Amino acid sequence: MANAQATLLAELAEDQATGRMAVIYDEIRRFSGVPYVSSLQRYLATLPGVLAWAWDAVRPAMVSGVIPETGWRLAREVRITPAMHVPAATLRQWDVDAAGLAGIRMIAANFVRVSPVNLVMGACLRHLLLGARPSGAGFAENWTPPAMLAPMPGNVDPATLLDVQRAVLMRFATEVDGAPFIPALYRQIAHWPTALAWLSDVLAHRSGAAETRAAGVAFRTAARAAAEDIVAGLPAVRTDGAPDEATAQRVLATIDRYAETSPQMTMFGQLILDALPEVLAP
Known about the structure:
mainly alpha, globular, disordered N terminus
């Protein structure tokens, strides 16, 4: 378990991105269909030149819709046993009103949409970092991304929570690149601590369950197979600006860690949507 007081995984926050990074962040949001740059890309942005090189490499497959549509298609095949339905009365006991329910559902919807994109994008970068040298014709850029989802409330800083609330949040912590990492799905839902405690209880035996592991492995394996074909169709990737060997190994380890959490974010985000009512009547 990661130390709750340790510094979290480094990132370039969205409101701190300027120049080329701001342009890349904007495109990531637009072609992922979410108003949010995921922690994977925010982490890559802290490594000199890495995000710019990575985005230049995979951009043809993003703006054409090949990566997003592949991720969403594969995600539709991933399912785990649903959680019990949460009645409206229980939500009220949690002090979750209609706006809160809409907020939690929007968080889940964002991760159901973005996590498969990150999984396939990461798989493509993995092939490139392991030596793939594409020389394809590229992809037609006539794709229209889906309408962007509504914004999320933002990640909760664990240090701002009460001890008991922070302890619940830290149940979801793992480690990436030697630093504690809490997937943003949970940091966002932490705005509603009682709802997060419910999710922690629901997932207590699911995260390591055979069903969840098998679904995650199948999703990851399918994404890597699809990524191999996508990378083969990419135009030649520039070698100048590519990460050096030590940095490449750090990026590969991070991508592999995200390849474990991204399927979970997809499955658990859908579990939330299926368990909660769509609206809370007054």
